[in-house]
Amino acid sequence: MKIHTLPLGAYQTNCYLIHETGSKTCCVIDPGFEPETVLDEAARLGLTVEAVLLTHGHFDHVGGVRQIAADTGCRVYLCPEDLSMPPAMTAGPLHHTHTYGEGDVLHLAGLDITVLHTPGHTPGSVCLRVGNVLFSGDTLFAGSCGRTDLPGGDWNAIRKSLIRLAAIPEDLQVFPGHGESTTLAAEKRYNPYLR
Description:
This protein is of the alpha/beta class. 23% of the residues lie in helices and 32% in strands.
C-alpha cells in the first residue's frame, strides 16, 4: 500500500491518500482543510479519488469533504453515530453518501479496509485497518490519546477503545489524525493510555 500524508490547516490535521501500488484510484482519509491541495496531490500522483473515509466528524477532519465530493463524485463514508454531534463541532451538517461501522470491510482503491468502531473522542470515531497499518484518527496519538472534554466525548468509552487497540496482537504501523506516525508496539510500551 502507498500512503501519502498531507498535514493540513492550522490544526495540522493529517490527511492521507492511500491506494494499492498500481491502482488508478485512491481513498482520502480525513480531508479537514485545503481541498484544492488534496485534489492537486491526487492529480500529481495520477489518481482519481474513489472515496473519502472519515475517522470522525469534527470540523478539522471534514472541512474539505464537500468540495472533494463535488469535484470528483466520490463516495463519502461516515460512522452514523457522529450525526448526533452538535453542528458547532462539525461545521454544519455532515456530508456523507454512505455509512459504515464495526466490522465492515470496504474494497476500495485495490485495498481491503476494515472498520473498527472506537468511540470516545466522538460517538462515531473509527479506526481503519489496512493490513498491518492502522489509521487511528483522534483515538490514538503517539504518546497520547484523543480528548474527551468536547460535546460527544466520553472518557470511559475511549478507555475501552484504547484497551481494545492494546489487545491487538500484531505490531501495526499507526497513522494518527495529528502528529507523527508510530507503531502499536511503541504505544503499548510507552503510551500511558495504553497501559
